[in-house]
Amino acid sequence: GDSVTQMEGPVTLSEEAFLTINCTYTATGYPSLFWYVQYPGEGLQLLLKATKADDKGSNKGFEATYRKETTSFHLEKGSVQVSDSAVYFCALTGRTGNQFYFGTGTSLTVIP
Amino acid sequence: GAGVSQSPSNKVTEKGKDVELRCDPISGHTALYWYRQSLGQGLEFLIYFQGNSAPDKSGLPSDRFSAERTGGSVSTLTIQRTQQEDSAVYLCASSYNRPSGGETQYFGPGTRLLVL
Asked: Which residues pair with A3 in a beta bridge?
């Protein structure tokens, strides 16, 4: 069945470091791919998304490219800030559009 | 405007009791979703409503779990004969339209359920 596998955390980085959080997926057909973020004490919110192959989603300096050839949707940011400390979830909408699959989440802590 | 709201925010119950969790989606959103987030685990998809109907109920973990949505708005997730393994945060989300095509989901703050 459809699934998402993302890099396990926790991840600790210094401010201004480069961030990559890996996400790979298994799906039939052409799913839509998402990154959601959960800041401390807040609810989940969409960070970015891509709905077809080779699309790049971007927001708040974060980027992820939908790579069908490698079934990946890795999250990257060139220079992280303390305010980026959060838990990041990779997700996909299944082929039927009736099911959703989230990864286990990657906790990121950015230290000054 | 108002976001997705859930009640109660916290619920402590005894094993074997029934509980009802409520979700109020964003006004005008036709799609509504329930998830479960257990400690150290990712989000587990439970069920999705389009309007008042649920096209796929296979995500519900057992027949003790049921959900309904009335009037295309409020939804209730009911857990009968609760077990300790049901302890988790139950999240509700809604989106403007059906999920195919990458609709953004807007999440509520969750209900934290503890079964003693």
From this structure: A26
How does pLDDT run across B2-54, given as a tens digit for each residue? 899 999 999 999 999 999 999 999 999 999 999 999 876 778 989 999 989 88
B115: pLDDT strictly greater than 70: yes
Residue B31 near residue B94 (C-beta atoms within 8 A): yes
Give how far the C-alpha of residue B46 lies from the chain's centroid of Cα atoms, to the nearest Å.
7
Lookup result for tokens 């926790």: A10
Strands (DSSP E) along chain B, which ranges? 5-7, 10-13, 19-24, 31-37, 43-50, 53-56, 65-69, 75-79, 88-95, 106-107, 111-115
B41·A103 Cβ contact <8 A: no
Name the minimum distance, in Å, from the CA of B89 to any CA of chain A: 11
Coil vs helix vs strand at A106: strand
Determine how β-strand B75-79 pairs with β-strand A56-59: unpaired
- Does residue A2 contact residue A28 with C-beta atoms inside 8 Å? yes
- Is B72 at the interface with chain A, CB within 8 A? no
Contact at CB, A99 and B48, closer than 8 angstroms? yes
pLDDT single digits (tens) B98-111: 777 778 899 999 99
Query: What pLDDT score does B18 carry?
Result: 98
Q: Please state, in angstroms and rounded to a whole number, the distance separating the CA atoms of residues B21 and B6.
A: 8
CB B75 within 8 A of CB B32: yes
- Scan residues 73-92 of B and list those with Cβ closer than 8 Å to A: 91
